[in-house]
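[recover] target loaded
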């Protein structure tokens, strides 16, 4: 098992060295905005706000600011996101939305339904892996990487709503965790994580500690 920890630590170190350096904040944000507009220009939202024309402009950032208004959650949901729950594809992002994350209640709404696309799940995985790679910046023994990582979040038991599933964002993320990470590192494990009630999960975690 000590060999396994060393292999994981070494792999993370090599992967981190292969990661390109981040550009300046303004360049990074400009590139990201262009990628987002390009990816979503053929969606209902992208066609409505003419993303294709925005991208052809030399000053596409200024045109974006003038053309696309800031939306509140209710405006975005009432005009666009509710269509995703009806099974309509390519609303504000390519493809159908399989998951909706439930936020805590606010003054505007009892609970917000945030669409979670497959691309968003992939992005969350990349961020999580980068965080794991960042551990190589610290003097952490290789044996640490063969131990489990306790992740306290929402239940991975999601509610089926016809065209989509809804639940806690942390539960959706855990349900879509890479298999190798789930098998080697993830605690408390799939069986406990499926328990719907927080109190039941905590009791089982303590019992197995």
């Amino acid at each position: 098992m000590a060999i396994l920890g060393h292999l994981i630590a070494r792999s993370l170190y090599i992967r981190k060295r292969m990661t390109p350096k981040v550009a300046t904040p303004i360049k990074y944000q400009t590139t990201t905005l262009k990628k987002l507009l390009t990816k979503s220009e053929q969606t209902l939202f992208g066609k409505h706000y003419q993303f294709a024309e925005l991208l052809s402009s030399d000053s596409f950032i200024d045109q974006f600011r003038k053309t696309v208004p800031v939306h509140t959650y209710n405006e975005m949901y009432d005009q666009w996101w509710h269509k995703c729950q009806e099974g309509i594809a390519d609303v504000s992002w390519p493809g159908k939305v399989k998951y909706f994350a439930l936020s805590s209640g606010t003054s505007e709404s009892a609970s917000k339904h945030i669409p979670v696309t497959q691309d968003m799940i992939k992005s969350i995985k990349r961020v999580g892996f980068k965080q794991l790679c960042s551990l190589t910046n610290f003097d952490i023994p290789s044996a640490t990487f063969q131990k489990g990582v306790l992740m306290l979040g929402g239940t991975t038991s999601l509610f089926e709503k016809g065209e989509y599933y809804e639940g806690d964002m942390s539960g959706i993320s855990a349900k879509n965790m890479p298999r190798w990470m789930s098998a080697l590192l993830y605690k408390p494990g799939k069986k406990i994580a499926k328990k719907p009630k927080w109190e039941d999960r905590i009791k089982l975690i303590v019992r197995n500690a």
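[recover] notes: The chain has eleven helices and six strands.
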